[in-house]
What we know:
With 328 residues, the chain is α/β, with parallel strands linked by helices. 42% of the residues lie in helices and 16% in strands. The strands form two sheets. A six-stranded mixed beta sheet has the order 1-2-10-7-8-9, sandwiched between helices. Strands 5-4-3-6 form a four-stranded parallel beta sheet, with helices on both faces. Strand 4 (84-90), helix 4 and strand 5 (107-111) form a beta-alpha-beta unit. Helix 2 (39-52) crosses helix 6 (146-163) and helix 6 crosses helix 7 (179-191). The longest helix is centred in the middle third of the chain and has 18 residues, at 146-163. The protein starts with 10 loop residues before the first strand and ends with a helix.
Amino acid sequence: MVRDFIGNTPLRRDEYLSMRYNTNILIKEEFHNPGKSSKDRAAWFMVEDAIKTNKIAPGGTFVEASSGNTGISIALIAKKLGYKAKIFVSASCSDEKIDLLKSYGAEIQQCDNSNGLHVFNSTQYLAQNYSSNTENTYFTNQYYNSNNIKAHYKTTGPEIWTQTNGEVTHVLVGVGTGGSISGIGRYLKEQNPKVKIFGIEPKDSVYSLYMQNIPIPDEEAKFDSIEGIGRTFIPGAFDKNAVDEIFQIDKNATVSISKKYREISGNLLGYSSAAVLAALDKHIEKMNLTENDQVVLFFPDHGDRYIHKLYKDLVSIEEISEDYNASI
């Protein structure tokens, strides 16, 4: 079964980052999942629930609005289980993700934006509208599906706790739908309320406002384009009680640190993973870290999904592909 290969991803101590920041920096490498991203976890929980509760009949179509990774995971799982997938992606979705969606047989519809169910030309609105008017389809709706949080509460959080022998002190997670950080944060804070959970979003995204109880502006926010994270609305999958603080980071700092990390370590960071590292670098003074802390950076996918956006000017695409295939 596909589910037997989802989760239990490595937690790797990064020697370079640990030395640089004089603490213990641990990387949760989610690209070791079958679909090569953390979204396999939520996709499995959402798909399994829909099938078990008869929300979709055999051979039906799973529908999702996605920046790419959740769509890829749903397409992969659906194909394995004998279902189809139709994925609504935003115009900014990377070429690499589009190619993967096609390879898994997904039908793809590109949309103007992903600004929420209230915006008629958004991925969410169009996905819901399609599913509501098409027989034997199910809109997994990751932004409001409780299984998104449940997946990380049941799997990712416990893994981090076990892999650190219960000594984790800080976790940094990029915030898109809010499911990953909410599930991880809930579980870890139940084990130890002192664990600090920091969310990372692009400059001018709205989670920071929400955490400070500042009203979300009526006009759509124009946040920095960092694929996979940031929102103009607050999804139902986000639990502010599981999060201590949201850090913002700009696109230029994210791109810059992705290239620097590649040059020093030889590893390719995914876009939101680079944002997490950039946020650590920018906001580390606020975190009051000690040399004994155990700081987990949640890296949801791999840089091979952003070659044209982040790395094509560093080395050849062929060389990047060879490095990546050799590393997994």
